[in-house]
């Protein structure tokens, strides 16, 4: 076991109500008893906006932080019916925000729009989990690196606090499908993302990069052989405390 800090981030998507807090409570109880795991990890739950304020008041955890899953580009208040700004999320208790998830890119979030969102979120001192990833066709046509480079360079505002940006590499073809990239592909891709980030933003700091896409308690162990992977963005399996706990346990087995 190394001393590397690993991230286990749950992305609940459109899941959860007030009672679902018990899922997070169970995980918190588990972490309280296994300091071997919690001292090496950052555990974050990105939950629906409707739950952030309630959960942040109820959850007194030393181990778990809360995040949102998207925000509007306009930083504070404005005439944007149905939208929620970074400042509102921050006030509700979010510490993180996922931006650029492929499910949002599919419904209109362009690199340009995501870039504006990163600026708002960064100004509000939210930590950003920026999702990038290629489609199946892009992969098949050998375009993965071109797509990733473009997403990194075009969807992060240069004025953002770069130390607060976490990248999540989520190949679109892997999300919710049970398919995951090969280990040698992940090694190459993670090296590429870290190298490009440093080059594009002229920084010496290597970014934290997570893997996301069909991570579960059975396949997580395999990913530990890729040193460059700093943690996971977990969708479906984060909706069950048992699965989420097993993912953490099995990663360190
Ligand atoms: P999944 O989702 O783990 O269900 O594949 C990951 C994500 O969309 O962030």
Topology:
Blueprint: E1 6-11, H1 21-33, H2 35-38, E2 41-46, H3 49-58, E3 64-68, H4 86-92, E4 96-99, H5 102-105, H6 111-123, E5 127-132, H7 136-140, H8 144-154, E6 165-169, H9 183-200, E7 208-212, H10 220-223, E8 231-234, H11 241-251
Parallel strand pairs: 1-2, 1-8, 2-3, 3-4, 4-5, 5-6, 6-7, 7-8
Question: Mind explaining what this structure looks like?
Answer:
With 253 residues, this protein is an alpha/beta fold. The chain has one domain (6-251): Aldolase class I (TIM Barrel, Alpha-Beta Barrel), CATH 3.20.20.70. It is built from eleven helices and eight strands. The protein has helices at 21-33, 35-38, 49-58, 86-92, 102-105, 111-123, 136-140, 144-154, 183-200, 220-223, 241-251, and strands at residues 6-11, 41-46, 64-68, 96-99, 127-132, 165-169, 208-212, 231-234. Strands 1-2-3-4-5-6-7-8 form an eight-stranded parallel beta barrel, surrounded by five helices. The longest helix is centred in the C-terminal third of the chain and has 18 residues, at 183-200. The relative contact order is 0.15. The chain binds 2-phosphoglycolic acid (PGA). 2-phosphoglycolic acid binds at residues 11, 170, 175-176, 212-215, 233-237. Residues 11, 170, 175-176, 212-215, 233-237 line the site of 2-phosphoglycolic acid (PGA).
Query: Sheet with the most strands?
Result: 8 strands, parallel, barrel
Spatial ordering of strands, largest sheet: 1-2-3-4-5-6-7-8
What compounds are bound to the protein? Answer: 2-phosphoglycolic acid
Structural class: alpha/beta
The helix fraction, in percent, is: 25-40%
- Whole-number average pLDDT? 96
CATH architecture: Alpha-Beta Barrel
Q: Unreliable stretches, pLDDT < 50, 5 or more residues?
A: none
CATH superfamily: Aldolase class I
The number of helical runs is 11
Fraction in beta strands: 15-25%
Secondary-structure element order, N to C? EHHEHEHEHHEHHEHEHEH
> Could you please say which CATH topology applies here?
TIM Barrel
Distance between the termini: 9 Å
Morphology call: globular
Q: How many structurally independent domains?
A: 1
Radius of gyration: 17 Å
**What's the CATH class, please?**
Alpha Beta
| Number of E-state strands | 8
